[in-house]
Amino acid sequence: MTDSILSKAATMEIPINSNGDSRTAEEDSLEQGAQIGGSLDEIVGTLPVAMDLQQVMVSGPNLNETSIVSGGYGGAAEGIIPTSSIKDIRSKSRGITPSHSAASRIANQPGHYPAPSMHHSNSNPSMMSEEATRGVAVEKFDSMKKWSINTYKCTKQMFSERFGRGTKTVDLELEAQIDVLRETKMKYERILRLARELTNHFYNMVQTQQALGDTFADLSQKSPELQDEFGYNAETQRLLCKNGETLLGAINFFVSSINTLVNKTMEDTLMTIKMYEIARLEFDAYRADLEELSVGPRDAAAMVRMEIAQQQYQIQKDKYERLHSDVSIKLKFLEENKVKVMHKQLLLFHNAVSAYFAGNQQQLEQTLRQFNVKLKPPGSDKPSWLEEQ
């Protein structure tokens, strides 16, 4: 009885694995892990080079979830060793991280080419658009910077001139001509305004004469005892209306010519004068800046600033001289054109008005032919029947 109990106890203390070996579970587990690791190397080495590692992991068993059970069917839980820990141990011994060990062996195979990356081709248009946008922004910033500096210098120069602390470049002869032109333009604008008022009043008078002549003609048909008297007055009003329309044509031609002279020719010259005055102010501003730098220190930085100021001063000087010449030429041609135009228009106005109030219809028509004034037929200002539809 005692011998049987001792033999059972000895049998229980010696674990027996499935192969009948008397080795411990830990030694058995380590050996099986080594065998599995070796088999993994053989499997990975025999895979085709072009096969992707992801396809192998999808098609094959999930090695991270498999485990090696040592001992018999009723063995203890301590004998379960995950294969992932075995691969981690082998990878660390080789200097490769566990997650990339198999992928690194495949990538190092001869003839293996990595997949082309599309990131560069996709980001290239966006990089170009960003560079273009950045270039436009830099250009706008530079233009704004130049405008701000120029405005500051011109404003400083303007206040210096106004308070008597700055010097101003003045051409007395040219300034006198500019003042005369501005005064002449104001007077010609008054002539133009009065001539337009005369045209409106005279047009109303002609319309009244026409209506009065129509009324006289109607009454001459309805009043037999006053037929002759109404008829004479109707003919007189119709003649005055016809001569009035001829005079209106002459006055309209006069107004159109004065309007062209004042609002186009003179205005164009005055626009050039405004550009000249702005150039003069900029020239004096950069000249004052250069003079201020010339009396300052002569270190390296100051010499660089002085050289830049000298270049800007020369640019403004060339611009000022060019506009000065343009203004002188335009003033000269404007004076000649004004004399020529006003001589013709004043003679036309005088002859037309004199012939109208003298009742000389032939002289009035001859005056218009002399100055090539073409009268519009009555009702030409009204739209045609087709245009009304």
UniProtKB/TrEMBL annotation:
The keyword 4Fe-4S does not apply. One of its GO terms (biological process) is regulation of Arp2/3 complex-mediated actin nucleation. Keywords: Coiled coil, Golgi apparatus, Membrane, Phosphoprotein. Its main location: Golgi. It is found in: Golgi apparatus membrane; Golgi apparatus, trans-Golgi network. Residues 1-32, 91-132 are annotated as: Disordered. GO terms for molecular function: phosphatidylinositol-4-phosphate binding; protein domain specific binding. Residues 169-369 form the AH domain. This is AH domain-containing protein. It comes from Onychostoma macrolepis. The lineage of its organism: Eukaryota, Metazoa, Chordata, Craniata, Vertebrata.
